[in-house]
Design brief:
This protein is mainly alpha-helical and about 110 residues long. It is built from one helix and no strands.
Amino acid sequence: MPWWVWLSLGVFLAAIVATAVFSVFAFRRLGRLTAIAERIQAPVDEVAQAAAELERRMARNEERMAELERHRAHLEASLARLRVLTSAFSEARAELTGVRRRYLRK
C-alpha cells in the first residue's frame, strides 16, 4: 500500500477519535445542562404561578375600581341632592323664622 493511503487512514482514525472525544464531552455537558434546567424549572414555575395570581388580582382590582367609581358617582349625586335639600331647608327655616317674628310681634 502506498504511503498516502496510510496517511489518509491515520487522518480518518484521528477524526473518528476526535469526534468520539468531542461527543463524550458534549453528552456530559448536555447532561449537566439538563440537570441545571431541571433545577431552574421549579423557580420558573413559581414565578409563572405568581404572575398568574398577580393577573387575577389585577383583574379583581379593576373590577373593584369600577365598582368604587360607581359608588363615588352615586355619592356625588347624593351630596348634590343633600346640598339642594339643605339649601331648601335653610330657606324654609328662614321664612318660618320671619313669619314667626311677624306674627309674634303683633
